[in-house]
Amino acid sequence: MVWKKALAIMFGLLVLASGVPLIKAESTNVDINVIILVSDNEADCALADYISNLTDVVVVKTPWGVYDPNITADIISHAPDEVIILGGPVAVPEEYVEDLQNIGITVERWWGENRYETNIAVINNVTLKFNLQLQNKVILAVGNDTMGIQKALELAIQGRAMMVFVNQNTNITRTIKQLKVKVQEFTMIETPYMNKTMLRVREQLEEKPECNCTRVQVNMTAERALEAINLAEEKIALAKELAQNTTNPAVETLLAIAEKQLEDAKEAYGNEKYGSAYGLAIAAKSKTDVIIKLAGEDMRKQLMDNTKMKLERELVRVEAQIRVMERVGVNVTVAIQIMEQVRAAIKNGDYDLAQELMVKLRNEVKTCYMNGKEMMRENKPAPIGKKGKP
């Protein structure tokens, strides 16, 4: 059935290749074990990488807009006391919050209505949470310009500066006020594809006589264009699989546009028009976010109307948590027994019993986690899909 295939994609294919600790530069003043969960959205992801480079916080990444119980399992394997989510519930689905809170992990979400508001929320929260002392410098990059964001991240880490993402509608005066600091220096990251957007921001800054502004040009290369094409191709493949689960006509239209833009990007790349190839790839990738969002909404509607499907999905979620604890030696015997009882009840069509047992199972999994946290911290398993000593 189509929904089963969608579940397999949502839950099985998205393994933990990105769920690894990043570079760490200094200790934090946080006494509890904290993990950051973020989507692979280029803007939010850069903020997480930035925090990780200034602290000892581990970052776990999930595909934008997609819930994967293996990601929850990876988080659990770090045995955190708290998880900070960067981004809203569309980018990082609420199922993660449910998973983590159900086993006793505190969850805090730093977000806004879009990546630009999330950007400000993260900067304001991180300085308080981790007692970070940042310079009164801002690195500006266009919020969907992967190439520019990568350069902004590099400069922000070097100078302990704040990264601020902008678009064509940015009011830079309002944005800086939201940072609640007096900014002394601005560095604008300019790339060929995004020059018009950054020009608008530069014009606003030039109206300020006290502005100390620097421009950094990032040149387009074949390698950067190809990287954007490959990323767009991966996102389109994911969106196409998820789109099989929806009848929304907008999805088919958007998918066709994205595929055409990707085709045009490849053609431009072949003709050595790397700037055009990059821009088309970025545009194609942006369409996939909408497709993934719509597919996720349809999936949740189906779950509301299908008790069996909802229970089976819940079982997949909980089993991923049980198995990761089992791999490090946490005693999950009782949890496995209850899990099999739930499975049998679903198979027999006794959904009321299955729901009762599911409540019992969640409580048992929480007990296993609370009792096994120290063991997991001492003996973290190798990530799923990777080789390594468990």
From TrEMBL:
Q: Which UniProt keywords apply?
A: Coiled coil
Coiled coil listed as a keyword: yes
Q: Which Gene3D superfamilies match?
A: 3.40.50.12090
Q: Where does this protein have coiled-coil stretches? A: 222-268, 301-328
The name of this protein is: Cell wall-binding repeat 2 family protein
Organism, scientific name:
Palaeococcus pacificus DY20341
